[in-house]
Amino acid sequence: MSDAIKVLVTGAAGQIAYSLLYSIAKGDVFGKDQPIILVLLDIPPMMPVLEGVVMELQDCALPILKEVIPTDKEEVAFKDLDVAILVGSMPRREGMERKDLLKANVAIFKSQGSALDKYAKKTVKVLVVGNPANTNCLIAAKSAPSIPKENFSCLTRLDHNRARSQVAMRCGVPADSVKNMIIWGNHSSTQYPDVHHCKVNIKGKDEPAFDVVKDDAWLKGDFISTVQQRGAAVIKARKLSSAMSAAKAICDHMRDIWAGTPSDGEFISMGVYSTGNSYNVPDDLIYSFPVTIKDKTWKITDGLAINEFSRGKLDATAAELVEERDMAVAFLSA
Questions:
Q1: Residue 257: phi, psi to the nearest 5?
Q2: pLDDT digits over 144-188, tens only?
Q3: DSSP track, 101-122
Q4: Active site residues
Q5: The model's pTM
């Protein structure tokens, strides 16, 4: 067996983590033979709940789970990490202004970025889930100057999976028959789920999604708004935000970073550092692009044609991210 890797999950007493931790600890993400030390960080009032989570992890009797470390201290949580999954963030409360939410989260992710910089391995892979995920990720990266920007990503895989599933259901095929879906931009209601390069496997042959769906109005209208508003629809129905599906998307995202994407050039969606991209997206953002991953390194898939319809959508979500970034950076230096 190889040496154990150290994996941190923040917001570890919360509902996403509750759906996530078992999958990580049983080997679904980093491999069935990869021993794991799980570090669980949450705020002091959540420590009694976290003790219960630790008991349950122990009671699962999982062979690759070597140790579980619950803590409310950043210097303990971020020490010598191989992987950091930052789920915890300040949730939006009723009547809360967006700028107040941003300000609270800048404080959290500045602190966690600094802790990564100070205590974690320089090779650490950081996935930000807590919303606003793109901008929280950017703030964490800016607060950890000694760790390469390429090591930071944010979760848009949930949007990607939602979009794949919508097309699959429409076509009457399994979700894994739909590939090369793209989520562009922000993990918000301005995100752009793009099917122009998407393929649907019908009877063993990959066909363009537009040709299989045969409903351009749906693909350019209700499909997009359904994916954009899906999180809100789940909250309305469950009275709680997505947890099981978010945890599954986190597993997909981290597994692809660890093991790579399929060798046939299939791409997935991930919020990554935008500087130097070929799609005229402004630099210095965490923006969701189509990427392939090899040797734990992502690469934006270049050369995809962007029509006028798509261009407007890419620019709109970029504009929102620029506005968020500028507000967050002002708080960062305040």
A1: -65, -45
A2: 999 999 999 999 999 999 999 999 999 999 999 999 999 999 999
A3: HHHHHHHHHHHHHHHHHHHS-T
A4: 187
A5: 0.97
